[in-house]
Structure formats: C-alpha cells, structure tokens
Design goal:
The chain is 1% helix and 26% strand. It is mainly beta and 470 residues long. Among the domains are: 59 residues, no CATH class; 85 residues, TSP-1 type 1 repeat (Single Sheet). It starts with a strand and ends in an 11-residue tail after the last strand.
C-alpha cells in the first residue's frame, strides 16, 4: 500500500494523528476527523479533500502509518469540544511572547485533544540600546623612532540604537603612548683623564689614563667611538717588600647543631705569598663563620594561662562555671607533641537560694453526702504542701476546699436537719488547713434546705512558716 502523508498545517492546529482516519479513493485521500476533536459547528460539514501524495512537497508533509480501510459512513461522536475562546493577552509588552486560548468539553468526558492551546505573539518592538563594537586594531605610531602616540576606534553598532534605545555611553576613540626604536646616537670621546698612580709602590710598573665614550654615549644603534679609551706608560719606583697574601678559603665545616639554626666555619692561610722583604702580614682574619639552618626542631605545645571563670550555669541555687586555656604557648609544630591535660576546667558555684512557690497536693476523696435522702452536697480538700512555699515563693492560688451536689434516694416526707456534728480533724498536720462539720437531713420526703456540710479554717503548729487560708 502507498504510504500517505498529511500537511503539517493539521499538526500545527492541534489535531491528534491517532484520531484521524484516512480513506483512500481513486485520486483523493479524504480525512475524517474524530468528531470529538472539532468544534460543534463543523460536525456535519463535508470532509476536507487532501491532494494526492505526489502533488505535495515532502517538506510540508508528515508521514503517518497507513490506516486500515473502513466504511465511509460518518460515525457520530460520543465526545465533543466547544469552540475555542478568545486569545489571552500577550505575555510580553514588547518583543516575542505567548498567548493562550481555552475551550470547554460539551460532553461528560473528552479524552482526546486538549482544553488549552497556545501560540507566539509579537508585541511592539522593545527599545534597543546601542552597544559598542570591538575596538579596531591600533593605528600606526605617530613617529618613526622614539616616543609617540597611536589610536583605535569603535562603532556604536553592536547593536545600533533603535526603537528609542539610548546611544552608547563613553567615547568611540582611544589612544595610548607608543615607543618605537629610539633614534640612534653616535658616541663621542670625553677629554683624557690625568695620569693615574704607578701600578706598583716599588719596582717597575705602569700608569694609565682614560677617556670615556660619553660625549655623548652611543645609544639606540648609534656607532661607538673610534679608537681606544685607555692609554698607558711605564713608571719605575724603588724595590718592593713582599706583603703576605691569603690563600683561598677552605670548604665549610659541619653545622654546629643537628636541627634548627647553628653556625659553621672555614679557614685560609697567609701564604699566597708569604710576607718577605719587610712586607706586611696578611690583613683580616684567617677564620670565617656563617649561620646554618637544618630541619626545624620539633616544638611541643604549651598551655596558655587559664581564662577568667565564666558565668554560673544557674541564676539561683547551685550550678557550675567553667574556664578554658589554649594549646598555643607555643602551638605544637614540626612534629612536636600536643599539650597534655584538658583545655577546660569547671567548678561548682552557689548563688542565693531559689524561691519555691507553693503547690497543691492531690484532692482528698469526696466526703459523705450531707443528706441520706434527696439532694445534698459533699466536699473534698487539698493542701498547699506540694511543695510548701519557701524562700519568698508565692502561696498556692485558688481554694483548698471544693464541693459538689450529691443526690440520694428521694425522701418520702419533708426532711429535717439534725444538729451539727462535731468538727472533724484538720486537713493538715501543720500550718493551715480546713476542718468540716456535718449535719444530717433526717426523715424521708423533700430535701432539707441549706447545706449539710460546713467548712472552717484551722491553724496548727508552724511547718517552718505560717500559712493562712483565706
């Protein structure tokens, strides 16, 4: 079967190749588009003919796999998209940006295609600020020898300013000094100097005089002075004594230490020549020395002085404080050992006693109901001793007594209160507490009016400090 192609135009507008069915006829390939992928207003339009494969340039075609032959009957869709909405604003105010459009699925589901499409958009051109081109090569020097200048230029065309963009900042020209070969200067002789001393203090010798090729000195390739800069003649003095002269120095001896800095020495002899004919001994010393440095000696670490003690770890009561020292007096080096011992030290520190706020004990069990029938009350107590307040700590907040209603079986007749019972023991063994007294609603019937239990503060021996319960 001949391979079929479809124009890239269809691909660019978002068609899914898997949803396109090709039907081959005599000379025209008809494309049935999946109705779920097109707008409702094109559902019943005629199919679009596509030119035969041979009539379309290959650069505009995208190959797809051959589709099996199917019936020409148009199948109605089960899925359908609405029309595309308007394009959104461009994402860029200048230059190239993008914009999007959306559409809505008109059926319960649309498994093919997308609800969103996008395209590039070109807004107004952005201002383009001018940019300098690379500098040109340096021009020729302004002189052929000696010091001059040379220049170079650059253009404001990389890019050229446009769309209201700014011109290039700075200068389009630059210069620097240039130095070529110095101009040649030929040398000229100075006048002769006076005759010098005789070359010996006794016997036959010579003396000389000189002149300098510095009037002017030759430079930059100029020619030297012609002739000689020196002149000599013989001179004769009395016979000479022979003064002693030093021999060459011996080789250096061994260093005085095995590590670190030391010294080493060498010697020479007054025999080159030995003094004679009343000549003088050699001047100077026959011995010499210099420093010598071998591998560095190991330096063991040493502790610095202890720092001051730090702050106590607590603001009241007993805590600790510390101090430190550094292994830098000196620091260990060249293989020397670290400091022995610890770089930290601590000790206890005691500040003023901490205040202890009072805390309530657990509630006691509920007492008996104040009545034997009907509605009454029952009570319970707690102590400010868990812990007791000390060192200026605050008392317990709240009450040391609590009560709640209690209901017994209904009284058959109107009740009547018995006499108050004796006061029970104080709820505390020292300090302040609560004591209670009870009465009973006797007889059956309606409950007695009032409370069947009453409270009274009690104060016992001092627990180290007195505490009154309000």
């Amino acid at each position: 079967m001949k391979q079929l192609f479809i124009s890239t135009f269809f691909l660019s507008i978002g068609f899914d190749l898997n949803s396109i069915i090709l039907i081959q006829t005599a000379n025209t390939d008809l494309v049935k588009q999946d109705l779920a992928q097109v707008d409702r207003d094109v559902v019943d339009k005629d199919l679009v003919p596509i030119a035969p494969v041979g009539d379309i340039p290959e650069r505009e075609l995208t190959p797809i796999a051959p589709a099996p032959p199917i019936d020409d009957t148009l199948v109605r869709p089960t899925e359908s998209w609405g029309t595309w909405g308007t394009w959104s604003s461009c994402t860029s105010t200048c230059g190239s940006g993008s914009r999007t459009a959306t559409r809505t699925c008109l059926t319960s589901t649309c498994s093919q295609g997308s609800s969103k499409r996008s395209e590039t958009c070109n807004a107004n051109s952005c201002p383009v600020n001018g940019g300098w081109s690379a500098w040109s090569d340096w021009g020729s020097c302004s002189v052929t020898c000696g010091a001059g200048t040379r220049g170079r230029t650059r253009q404001c065309n990389n890019p050229s300013p446009s769309e209201g963009g700014s011109e290039c900042s700075g200068s389009g020209g630059d210069s620097e000094e240039c130095t070529l070969r110095a101009c040649p200067i030929n040398g000229g002789w100075s006048a002769w100097s006076n005759w010098g001393s005789c070359s010996v203090t006794c016997g036959a010798g010579t003396r000389g005089r000189t002149r300098q090729c510095n009037n002017p000195s030759p430079s930059e390739g100029g020619s030297e002075c012609s002739g000689s800069g020196g002149d000599s003649e013989e001179c004769t003095l009395r016979a000479c004594p022979i003064n002693g002269g030093w021999s060459a120095w011996s080789n250096w001896g061994s260093c005085s230490v095995t590590c670190g800095a030391g010294t080493r020495g060498r010697t020479r002899q007054c025999n080159n020549p030995s003094p004679s004919e009343g000549g003088s001994e050699c001047s100077g010393s026959g011995g010499d020395s210099e420093e010598c440095t071998l591998r560095a000696c190991p330096i063991n670490g040493g502790w610095s002085a202890w720092s001051n003690w730090g702050s106590c770890s607590v603001t009241c009561g007993t805590g600790t404080r510390g101090r430190t020292r550094q292994c830098n007096n000196p620091s260990p080096s060249e293989g020397g050992s670290e400091c022995s011992g610890s770089g930290g030290n601590s000790e206890e520190c005691t500040l003023s006693a901490c205040p202890i706020n009072g805390g309530w004990s657990a509630w006691s069990n509920w007492g008996s109901c104040s009545v034997t029938c009907g509605a009454g009350t029952r009570g319970r107590t707690r102590q400010c001793n868990n812990p007791s307040p000390s060192e200026g700590g605050s008392e317990c907040s709240g009450s040391g007594g609590d009560s709640e209603e209690c209901t017994m079986s209904a009284c058959p007749t109107s009740g009547g209160w018995s006499a108050w019972g004796v006061w029970e023991s104080c709820s505390a063994t020292c300090g302040s507490g609560i004591k209670i007294s009870r009465r009973v609603c006797t007889n059956s019937g309606d409950p007695c009016e009032g409370d069947g239990i009453r409270y009274e503060n009690c104060l016992l021996r001092n627990c180290g400090k007195l505490y009154l319960v309000a």
